[in-house]
Specification:
The protein has 395 residues and is an alpha+beta fold. The chain has 13 helices and 9 strands. The protein has 3 domains: 91 residues, Butyryl-Coa Dehydrogenase, subunit A, domain 1 (Orthogonal Bundle), CATH 1.10.540; 95 residues, Butyryl-CoA Dehydrogenase, subunit A, domain 2; 163 residues, Butyryl-CoA Dehydrogenase, subunit A, domain 3, CATH 1.20.140. It is globular.
Length: 395
Amino acid sequence: MNQTFPAEVQSVLDGVRDLLPTFRERADETERLRVVPDASVKELEETGFFRLFQPRRFDGLEADPLAFYSAVRDIASADGSTGWIASVVGVHPWQVALFSDEAQQAVWGADTSVRLSSSYAPTGKAVQTEGGFMLSGKWSFSSGCDHCSWVLLGGLVFNTEGQVVDFRTFMVPREKYEIVDVWNTVGLRGTGSNDIIVEETFIPEAFTLSMGETGQCKGPGQEINTSDLYKLPFHSIFTSTIATPIIGMARGAYAEHVDMQQKRVRAAYLGEKASLDPFSAVRIARASSEIDAAWALLMSNLAEEQAHVARGEQIPLELRLRVRRDQVLGTARAIEAIDTLFEASGGRALAEGTYLQRVWRDAHAGRVHAANDPERALQMYGAQQFGHKIDPGMY
């Protein structure tokens, strides 16, 4: 899928591609540190990557989603952990643009390079009070939180009678939360996806968003950030943010496997060159098709949503569910391709420090993210096709 981007956006993509060899060289260090090195984050910042989804009034680029996801895909092809945190941290300016102007000014008014992490599962508790909410709780899996000075947290809202009345996203500054280092995993080790703890603290209503309203593609920030970019569905943008790094990892695995096979001699087959094995050729043909299909469907669906927005039309529920259908199946396609390539790469792929064993671990770690739960997304799509009522706020 080829597209011409504005020069300022293309400059970001070119800058990102120049960094790929460096990110790959740092992959071992990233795993050892269990967090993406500060140098890598700084280099991404210098390209303008973190400004792709940021509003122009805060020095952002308001870029086409294809540009953002193309950059993420490329970064993840070099190193899964770096691609993962680039994606999840880089997408947050999109949601901040939906918050009130007061909240946006608090984040970017003094420094437009400020970054945010997140943990959206509603594991915290918020109690309604005058002017806002009292928030407390523990949240897990806040990828890239060490590189951020704000966090977006999901929480169920309780009224004074103890009844759940809403599900909101709460924007919390660094001085009001603690990061607890718990991230010791077999994959995506470098994402620093640690826990966030908030002792009971007051969050003004202006620093919150109702997920019900967000699910309807609405937010107070749209009054001042009028770009069509900010009218797309939250779940389309954020689940694509989770799938894209895994597709990028698959692209990297494909390139690595093809290069290895061209050099590999199979001792068990009388010194035959692996690249001459017809079954090897079939494997890479199948794998490349799965990777290409995953990417093409993900991007074409988003482009179709954009077209509806550009015409001033409501995005059909069927399309929103199709985005989720092809997002979870795109993840599955990418991982199936990685498995095929890894299994056909020989024993040398198992060595510590090699690309293929790392990408195999990283992709399977990314698969367990809630956004990649295939049955739930597929059931919703199928139920809608059968004419059953579906809550659009969920997708």
